[in-house]
Specification:
The chain is an alpha+beta fold. The protein has 4 helices and 3 strands. The longest helix has 18 residues.
Length: about 80
């Protein structure tokens, strides 16, 4: 994955979790269509940055993640 792909996938995960609160990691992995190593990298980036929490094979969004997701959504509205 290049930097652009990483950013796109991180944004997709965050904005989705903002709507759902949490989701099974396997569902996110399958929706992204990436390999497991790439998914683990994305998950690690999200968890270590405090944007999500991983518990019982589920990812949930934190308040910091919600703040960033709102910014992403606001940016996307202007880009359309």
């Amino acid at each position: 994955m290049n930097k652009q792909e990483i950013n796109q996938k991180l944004a997709a995960i965050l904005t989705t979790l903002d709507e759902m609160e949490d989701a099974a990691e396997s569902t996110i992995y399958l929706a992204l269509g990436c390999n497991i190593e790439d998914f683990e990298l994305l998950k690690d980036l999200l968890v270590k940055s405090g944007l999500t929490v991983s518990k019982s094979n589920r990812l949930s969004i934190t308040s910091l993640g919600k703040t960033l997701a709102a910014k992403i959504n606001e940016f996307a509205k202007g880009a359309i």
